[in-house]
Prior knowledge:
The chain is built from 14 helices and seven strands. By secondary structure, the chain is an alpha/beta fold. The protein folds into three domains: 4-87, Orthogonal Bundle (Multidrug-efflux Transporter Regulator, Chain: A, Domain 2); 89-171, Methionine synthase domain (Methyltransferase, Methionine Synthase (B12-binding Domains), Chain A, domain 1, Orthogonal Bundle); 175-296, Cobalamin-binding domain (Rossmann fold), CATH 3.40.50.280. Strands 4-3-5-6-7 form a five-stranded parallel β-sheet, sandwiched between helices. The chain has a two-stranded antiparallel sheet with strand order 1-2.
Amino acid sequence: MYTIKEASARTGVGAPLIRAWERRYGVIKPTRTPAGYRLYDDATLRVLLAMRSLVESGWTASEAARAIAAGEVSADEIVGRPGGAGEAAPAERHQARLVTEFVTAAVQASSADTEALLDQMLASGSFEAVIDSLVLPATAALGDAWAAGRLSVAAEHAASAAVARRLAAMFQAAGAPGRTAVVVGLPPGAHHELGALAFAVALRRRGIGVLYLGPDVPVEGWIDAVTATSAKAAVVGAVMAADAEAAVPVVDALRPLGLRLLALGGAAATPEIAQRMGVAVLPQPVVDAALTVADALGRRA
């Protein structure tokens, strides 16, 4: 058995935080000496180590505690894996379960369950921690379910709209950083906007001014937006192969405007297509794409 000072030294979790996790979430339950001092056994130390690993990988403390208490992730398995929580099988299973249940709720047209599961995903960590590991994979799974005939068009639209509403709220919550530095949108005829909207949120959360144009933006609209804002960069989203082709006239129209960065982003933004267009291609993860643009603008800090 260990005192709270010894438990803190062995786990790297500060004593005040150990008390907070005990008080707020009940995830650890130390025994007490007759004098009232806390004592921790080896199993409790493993829970503390698991909590620390999950929180350091981007989970909120409340979601980590809930998942451990519910048995959705195993403290013993997390602590036993050398890669830590970010590579731990229990954490991956937890994410896969949320995505599966989200799609199942959409298939069953249960808006209450769909909304609740989406909120659970977003509550499990910061935007940067969950957008590429949970939220966007969940939207991709919706598309897979529709393609497989398991999900109706209406149900897919309803679930996607729930995601879009939350991303739009996050965009607003990030505040207005000031002058527009980047214009983001989709080319004419392109409608799959969730990735582009998530990317706009990621940029805005880094303090970069973004004008988000949305889907199906005509070439003239792109020119007007860049000219009116004196933006330094423009990112055209391309999810489908047809979107990449539709981006060609947009890129051709924007190239003479002297942008510091003109880039293509999204699943269809392959290096081959970008090279043919003569533009940069952004990496797939939204957070990495935002970092790339921040670097180009000298705004990484």
